[in-house]
């Protein structure tokens, strides 16, 4: 058997596995409508945030701390137009609003490199939160907003839908020539530009695509929270979590951030419910250990173990 | 026919004139050498041509079209490719992907992935890197990284290739291979401008040579005339009075 048929067989197995997982996920609400759905929705939300973050920041190495801004824009979109329009359109507009914001911010700031970009994007989150607060205090005279309520099942299915769309998008980008260009930008931006890559355009568009999914996730999640204000919607926590989860899972493969975010969220949930007082202590320890000893994240660990097992087999025979 | 033409090209870094009022004219199909002591402005001139920098004044024309102030990727897609004095390969990418990136985004965008792979494979063969096409670029020797840069530049399908000190730091065997490679590139009909300190290489390969000193053009002629020119010898070896004392 030559290597091409081997790889195509391998990818078929993968495809089948992914399909089975999604079919199972699609039926979960029928069998476990309560807490499992709430937990799975929140896992899906973090997975979406993390994978979106990795689409842009993974290959380019531009560390964006703007996820909270794009997530928050989605949340506020949902709060403002949620009652007036059908939900699918609300989610779409939430994504588009973040997409547009990212285009604007990206065009202005993606010439900044390294730490300056990270700081600017973090500043963006603060700027939007405080501007909104100022607006609410001095113009509308309100504090926060109520959001229309959706059932747990609806939230779950929308999250799942956005996640599927995101996975397909991320997969297509990775395999395309733009995926290669993004890697080139991360490894040597000047060389990429002199090799014909329109670096500004590639960066800004990818940044905006990643923001779209964060905004959509925000628009869906808002309905679970029923009440939001600028500091709930634009909580910097949502900027840091995707970064930590991506590092935890490993960014080399597409499934790295997925696994990282899922395990991370589940771990957090377990720790909060079982060891409420020790939660942060245990969590912090796990994080430090992961960063010190798992340079390629969980996926790197799995790959090393797997390699060890299969090589061990070869030694035996 | 001239392929590249510069008129009064000037660039300042603060108060320092890195390039001042330089005119040049490169003919289609020739190998044009650019020499001068360290800090003469050779790489700055390359950066101006490839649009890594914008000139303060003056115009640069490529095939008659004014390209001053365009962005680097545009210049590349018009048919001007370059290599770098300090190599800038995509370090963690396999050698083959470094070159494929050039095929995808160079002069002929819209290339299918099959064609891009085929073209990149041929180019690696051409520069002699077929054996290491799966290796990450960072694991190559300096000589091979420089060749990889040449392959990547060629993948963009250029009409004009700027080679910035491609031969610096190579051992004699590698040097001979590099000179032979430059000759083969020129035989493909690609115009070459090369910056070089290795005199043997530049004298053998180039038809014409321009000498820069403190940002000014002080000579432009055939290799024979440059080698015997008093001004050029003075710049490289110093004034007679100084040399004698």
Q: What about the largest sheet of chain A?
A: 2 strands, antiparallel
| CATH homologous superfamily heading of the largest domain in chain B | P-loop containing nucleotide triphosphate hydrolases
How far apart the termini of chain A lie comes to 21 Å
Our count of domains of chain B comes out at 2
How would you characterize this protein structure?
The complex is a heterodimer of chains A (317) and B (245). Chain A has 14 helices and two strands. Chain A has helices spanning 3-31, 35-60, 67-81, 87-109, 115-140, 152-175, 177-187, 189-194, 199-225, 230-233, 237-249, 255-274, 279-293, 297-316, and strands at residues 145-146, 227-228. The two termini of chain A are 21 Å apart. Chain B is α/β, with parallel strands linked by helices. Chain B folds into two domains: 2-79 and 159-244, Rossmann fold (3-Layer(aba) Sandwich); 91-157, no CATH class. Chain B is built from ten helices and ten strands. Chain B has helices at 42-49, 72-78, 95-105, 113-127, 142-155, 172-187, 199-205, 223-228, 230-237, 240-244; strands at 2-13, 16-27, 31-35, 57-62, 65-66, 80-82, 160-164, 191-195, 208-213, 216-221. In chain B, the strands form two sheets. A six-stranded mixed β-sheet of chain B has the order 6-7-8-3-9-10, with helices on both faces. A four-stranded antiparallel β-sheet of chain B has the order 2-1-4-5, with helices on one face. In chain B, α6 links the parallel β7 and β8 (191-195). The longest helix of chain B is centred in the C-terminal third of the chain and has 16 residues, at 172-187. The A-B interface holds A 177, 180-181, 183-184, 187-188, 190-199 and B 50, 52, 71-73, 75-77, 81-82, 84, 88-93, 97, 100-102, 104-107, 109, 113, 116, 152-153, 155-156.
């Amino acid at each position: 058997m030559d290597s091409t048929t081997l790889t195509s067989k391998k990818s078929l197995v993968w495809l089948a596995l992914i399909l089975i997982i999604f079919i199972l996920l699609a039926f979960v609400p029928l069998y476990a409508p309560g807490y499992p759905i709430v937990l799975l929705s929140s896992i899906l939300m973090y997975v979406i945030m993390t994978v979106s973050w990795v689409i842009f920041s993974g290959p380019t190495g531009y560390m964006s701390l703007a996820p909270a801004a794009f997530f928050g824009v989605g949340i506020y979109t949902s709060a403002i137009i949620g009652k007036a329009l059908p939900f699918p359109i609300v989610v779409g507009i939430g994504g588009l609003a973040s997409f547009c914001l990212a285009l604007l911010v990206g065009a202005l700031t993606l010439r900044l490199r390294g730490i300056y970009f990270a700081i600017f994007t973090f500043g963006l989150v603060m700027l939007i939160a405080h501007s909104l607060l100022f607006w609410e205090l001095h113009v509308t005279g309100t504090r926060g907003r109520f959001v229309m309520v959706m059932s747990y099942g609806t939230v779950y299915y929308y999250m799942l839908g956005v996640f599927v769309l995101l996975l397909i998008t991320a997969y297509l980008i990775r395999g395309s020539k733009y995926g290669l260009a993004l890697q080139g930008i991360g490894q040597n931006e000047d060389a990429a530009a002199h090799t014909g890559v329109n670096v500004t355009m590639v960066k800004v568009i990818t940044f905006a695509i990643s923001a779209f999914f964060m905004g959509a996730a925000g628009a869906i999640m808002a309905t679970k929270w029923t009440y939001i204000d600028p500091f709930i919607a634009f909580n910097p926590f949502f900027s840091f979590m995707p970064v930590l989860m991506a590092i935890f899972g490993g960014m080399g493969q597409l499934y790295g951030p997925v696994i990282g975010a899922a395990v991370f969220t589940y771990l957090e949930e377990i720790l909060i419910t079982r060891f409420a007082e020790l939660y942060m202590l245990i969590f912090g320890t796990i994080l430090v250990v992961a960063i010190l000893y798992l340079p390629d994240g969980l996926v790197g660990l799995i790959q090393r173990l797997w390699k060890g097992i299969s090589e061990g087999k070869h030694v035996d025979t | 026919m001239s392929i590249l033409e510069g008129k009064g090209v000037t660039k300042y870094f603060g108060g320092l004139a890195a390039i001042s009022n330089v005119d040049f004219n490169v003919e289609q199909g020739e190998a044009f050498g650019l020499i001068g002591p360290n800090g003469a402005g050779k790489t700055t001139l390359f950066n101006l041509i490839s649009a890594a920098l914008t000139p303060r004044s003056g115009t640069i024309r490529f095939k008659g079209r004014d390209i001053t102030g365009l962005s680097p990727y545009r210049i590349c897609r018009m048919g001007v490719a370059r290599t770098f004095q300090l190599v800038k390969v995509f370090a963690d990418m396999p050698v083959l992907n470094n070159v494929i990136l050039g095929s995808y985004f160079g002069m002929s965008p819209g290339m299918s992935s099959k064609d891009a792979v085929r073209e990149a494979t041929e180019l690696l063969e051409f520069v002699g890197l077929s054996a290491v096409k799966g290796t990450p670029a960072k694991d190559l020797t300096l000589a091979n990284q420089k060749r990889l840069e040449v392959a990547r530049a060629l993948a963009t399908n250029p009409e004009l290739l700027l080679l910035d000190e491609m031969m610096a730091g190579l051992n004699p065997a590698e040097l001979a291979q590099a000179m032979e490679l430059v000759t083969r590139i020129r035989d493909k009909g690609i115009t070459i401008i090369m910056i070089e300190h290795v005199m043997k290489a530049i004298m053998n390969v180039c038809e014409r040579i321009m000498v820069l000193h403190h940002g000014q053009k002080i000579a432009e002629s055939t290799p024979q005339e440059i080698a015997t020119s008093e001004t050029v010898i003075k710049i490289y070896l110093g004034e007679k009075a100084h040399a004698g004392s």
